[in-house]
Amino acid sequence: MEYYCTIFAAQESPLKEGLLWVGSDDGLIHVTQDGGKNWTNVTPKGMPDWMMINSIEPSVFNAGTCYVAGTKYKTGDFTPYLYKTTNYGKSWTKITNGIAPEHFTRVLREDPKRKGLLYAGTETGMYISFDDGKNWKPFQLNLPTVPITDLTIKNNSIIVATQGRSLWILDDLTVLHQLYDLKYSNQLILFKPKDAYRMRGGTLKNSKTSGTNHPNGVVTYFNIKDFDEQKDTVSLTYFNMKGDTIKTFNTTNKKKDKLEVKKGANQFVWDMMYEGTEKLEGMILWWASLDGPKAVPGSYKVTLNKNGESVSQPFTILADPRAESDLADMQAQFNFIKDVNNTMDKAHKTIKKIRNINKQLLAFEKQYKGDNTVKDLLDKAKALQKDFKSIEEALYQTKNKSAQDPLNFPIRLTNKLGHLNAW
């Protein structure tokens, strides 16, 4: 075995200028508080010799606190080694309680938003501590059993580098931040949604050649202590800050806006879309959209309701930083689509009324066919049907029976309006 006394890990304190920590591949830790002019050997007493200092993590909450992860697997020692100091290295505490005895540790990171929340990457996966390292629990979730070589935290997401199984991201750490501040006796727990970006695109799933994108929308986490599908009704309702209802998703809905709920932890993604326009049965349009407008950046609220008991949380929708349009442009687009949809909605509801009236007129004709006592009424019924037909055909191309028919028959008013919403 060869050692080269190489500095293998080095970090600068995020709190104190000139405070630097370094660890070597032969088991030494040094610290300087004057930008490198003077160094002090602060290697933990009792730490095994010739340990590779794999990572160093100065605290973002206390200048004198630092965390170290070391490995000795190259000498056949698979013991996890994590150490913590709160006094600039004068004394250290080993913090590995709860980590399996042969899950040697490669990296430790501190959550920058919640003091005492730590993440550790080991040879077999992830661990988490909510009490500053006193106790650890497995934090594997859907992560494969794989060596974790490094961790970093950005925008309330933790990025995991693995040895041979690509990069993984746990998208939303805000749930963990809120977890220990909540009362578990509550029947309903609604976590404050993480700020969501208003952007185009979707989530690619089940690909063998690429990763999975973050869900495109407002990711809403909630916990229901008890849930009986036969007895309980649960809903999620999204509001703008004026208190206007945008959309409600309910467990009682059969298909449209159905909310799937199970006992315990749940996740729902609202796509930021407002209610779309009325749709006709068997409707065929060419290059048109009936979707509602997308919420503009700003402040919103979500309410979780179970059998009349409710809890609410505010959240924020942010503009895509790459977008060329500003907030005024997005609001103008929102207003335009809303106006277009309102017109289409009226037209489609009118067509539904026409079709319903025509059914009644046809039933009347069938019942009194050949009855001369009501001949005038029968003539008026036929005239009404003719007038209604011309109105419906002006609004919608009734000859469309297949997806290719719009190539053969001219599109009508509602199709033209829907095309304005298709871009």
From TrEMBL:
A single MF term (Gene Ontology): hydrolase activity
SUPFAM superfamilies: Oligoxyloglucan reducing end-specific cellobiohydrolase
Xref: InterPro entries: WD40/YVTN_repeat-like_dom_sf
This protein's UniProt keywords: Hydrolase
Origin: domain of life: Bacteria
UniProt-listed CDD domains: Sialidase_non-viral
Stated name of the protein: Glycosyl hydrolase BNR repeat
Native source species: Jejuia pallidilutea
